[in-house]
């Protein structure tokens, strides 16, 4: 099995991809442990702050020591320089807010999953032509499940995952899966700023388990 297929299967099997960023290294690692205990085996850390690269490097170190099955992805990749830095740091997959052809050309030949954010059929076609197989629908709250329903038959060979605006409720999650997505990306609705500030790792674990349980009932 290729690395791209392994990552794809892992994300689809769990059905939700948690994503978060925290400037504090300890908080970052404790959230990772909470997600792992909840049953998560693929997570996206977003490159949105000065501490992102050093924190991610530490996440890889802790993963290697404590959670061998965990796949660590990096999000908010906007150029090749960032992709190279996180490739050297050991990222298992890469996610962008938009499609960057140079990033696709750098990662895909290395058998690394690249999932770019797309919100138009033109962008999706460009990504598919570049070899992308897993599309991030972004921003999900602006597009809505109706967009997914309208385009899914046009792109039968692609997997889709909305990010942005997906709630932790069964109604929200179910509406996307019924529309044809393979997974849902979940950021602040799951790992909220309030929970991170309170360092309430137990609740993050509980809420994540609830989401995974909801998804299993929908499959």
UniProtKB/TrEMBL annotation:
Record keyword Mitochondrion present: no
Q: What is this protein called?
A: Bifunctional 4-hydroxy-2-oxoglutarate aldolase/2-dehydro-3-deoxy-phosphogluconate aldolase
Q: In which pathway does it act?
A: Carbohydrate acid metabolism
Give the originating organism.
Answer: Chryseobacterium luquanense
Q: How does it assemble?
A: Homotrimer.
Write out the similarity annotation. Belongs to the KHG/KDPG aldolase family.
Question: What is a single Pfam family found in this protein's UniProt entry?
Answer: Aldolase
Report if keyword Lyase is assigned: yes
Q: Out of the domains of life, which is the source?
A: Bacteria
For this UniProt record, the keywords arranged alphabetically read as follows: Carbohydrate metabolism, Lyase
InterPro entries from the entry?
A: Aldlse_KDPG_KHG, Aldolase_TIM
Q: What is the lineage of its organism?
A: Bacteria, Pseudomonadati, Bacteroidota, Flavobacteriia, Flavobacteriales
């Amino acid at each position: 099995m290729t690395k791209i297929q392994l990552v794809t299967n892992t994300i689809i099997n769990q059905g939700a991809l948690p994503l978060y960023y925290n400037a504090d290294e300890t908080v970052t690692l404790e959230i990772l442990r909470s997600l792992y205990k909840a049953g998560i085996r693929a997570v996206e850390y977003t490159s949105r702050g000065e501490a992102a690269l050093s924190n991610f490097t530490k996440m890889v170190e802790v993963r290697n020591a404590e959670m061998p099955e965990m796949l660590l992805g990096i999000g908010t990749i906007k150029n090749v320089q960032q992709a190279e830095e996180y490739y050297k740091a050991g990222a298992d997959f890469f996610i962008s807010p938009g499609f960057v052809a140079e990033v696709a050309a750098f990662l895909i030949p290395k058998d690394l999953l690249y999932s770019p954010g797309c919100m138009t059929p033109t962008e999706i076609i460009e990504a598919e032509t570049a070899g992308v197989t897993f599309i991030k629908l972004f921003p999900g709250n602006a597009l809505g499940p109706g967009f997914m329903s309208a385009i899914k038959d046009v792109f039968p060979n692609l997997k889709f995952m909305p990010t942005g605006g997906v709630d932790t409720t069964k109604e929200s999650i179910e509406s996307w899966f019924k529309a044809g997505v393979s997974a849902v990306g979940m950021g602040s609705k799951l790992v909220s700023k309030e929970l991170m500030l309170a360092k309430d790792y137990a609740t993050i674990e509980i809420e994540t388990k609830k989401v995974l349980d909801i998804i299993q009932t929908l499959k």
